[in-house]
Specification:
The chain has 84 residues and is of the alpha/beta class. It has 2 helices and 4 strands; from the N terminus they run αβαβββ. The strands form 2 sheets. It has a two-stranded parallel ribbon with strand order 1-2. Strands 3-4 form a two-stranded parallel ribbon. Strand 1, helix 2 and strand 2 form a beta-alpha-beta unit. The longest helix is centred in the middle third of the chain and has 15 residues.
Length: 84
């Protein structure tokens, strides 16, 4: 909430697991609803290719984000996790 109060427009960009779209998308909506609240649902972008999403910063747990755009406009910040 501090970022939105500072005037930043925050979007959640997530990729569904391959071949699990039916359950994965519903689970992502459910996670956002439970942990962030109903007001965050319109800010959720679900895409297989994060490189085509416009923005200033992408905070992601995946060390290498690749896709159709070889030079996305956002800066990539890696959110470190034990599995990466």
């Amino acid at each position: 909430s501090e970022m939105t109060e500072a005037g930043l427009h925050i979007l959640l960009c997530t990729a569904p697991l391959p071949f699990q779209y039916e359950t994965c998308v519903a689970e992502k909506f459910g996670w956002v609803r439970k942990h962030l609240g109903e007001e965050w649902l319109p800010r959720l972008i679900i895409t297989r290719d994060k490189t085509v999403v416009r923005g200033r910063i992408l905070i992601d747990d995946k060390p290498k984000v690749s896709g159709a755009c070889s030079n996305p406009e956002w800066d990539h910040i890696i959110f470190s996790q034990p599995y990466n």
